[in-house]
Amino acid sequence: MAAFYGENHRAFQRRFDTERLADRIEERLVHDRISAEDRAFIEKLDMFFLATADADGRPNCSYKGGDPGFVRVLDERTIAFPCYDGNGMFLSVGNLDANPHVGLLFIDFTAPRRVRLNGVARVEPAAYVDPPLVGAQLVIVVTVREVFPNCPRYIHRMELVERSTFVPRAGVATPVPGWKQKEWARDVLPSGDPATRPPEK
């Protein structure tokens, strides 16, 4: 944990007289294991934000959503989550394949709470986890470097209205997104994409 803060962090901590506070937070709250409480929180959520950077350090932030439990805690140092069918750009997966350092932000908007998880990620085949994650093209496995709570005071309280019908679910046909039916996309879809099939009569 000695390297948790760099000199750039320390410069701002000294400027605002928060160095002692930052050290206490690191000492008390930052850990390298997923606790039972962390696990329960992570596995009940249906979304998180994923930060990656490419080989040149240029950042990218993605929203990842699914049904509760789509992020699976494999053990106290490891989590896994699915890479579902998307827009084919593979920005997050391509980034972490070049630069495996990632940051994940888990937020519960209904009972404001958030947890940060930083670690090193790798890409595995869809069958890597058992039971399989329904609809996964690939599985992203993250080895934890740090996990810690974040102050929830600025989280706006929101309620869930409806979960996306596009989330893959066992025994349910996933609808085709409208953008794949548009003229600009239809002729460049990957072979076998459900959107290339003629509509059922």
Task: State the CATH class of the largest domain.
Answer: Mainly Beta
| Number of continuous helical runs | 5
The value of Rg in angstroms is 19 Å
Strand % is 25-35%
Return the CATH topology of the largest domain. Answer: Pnp Oxidase, Chain A
Q: Give the ordered list of helices and strands.
A: HHHEEEEHEEEH
User: How many runs of DSSP E, i.e. beta strands?
Assistant: 7
Cα separation of the termini: 61 Å
Coarse structural class: alpha+beta
pLDDT < 50 runs, ≥5 residues: none
CATH superfamily of the largest domain: Electron Transport, Fmn-binding Protein, Chain A
Helix content: 10-25%
Tell me the strand order in the biggest sheet.
2-1-5-6-7-4-3
Write the layout of secondary structure elements.
Elements: H1 7-15, H2 19-29, H3 36-44, E1 47-53, E2 59-65, E3 72-75, E4 78-83, H4 91-98, E5 101-108, E6 113-125, E7 138-150, H5 183-186
Antiparallel strand pairs: 1-2, 1-5, 3-4, 4-7, 5-6, 6-7
Structural account:
This protein has helices spanning 7-15, 19-29, 36-44, 91-98, 183-186, and strands spanning 47-53, 59-65, 72-75, 78-83, 101-108, 113-125, 138-150. The longest helix has 11 residues, at 19-29. The protein has 201 residues and is an alpha+beta fold. It has 2 domains: 1-30, no CATH class; 31-186, Pnp Oxidase, Chain A. The model has no long low-confidence stretch (mean pLDDT 94). Strands 2-1-5-6-7-4-3 form a 7-stranded antiparallel sheet, with helices on one face. The protein is elongated and about 65 Å long. The protein contains 5 helices and 7 strands; from the N terminus they run αααββββαβββα.
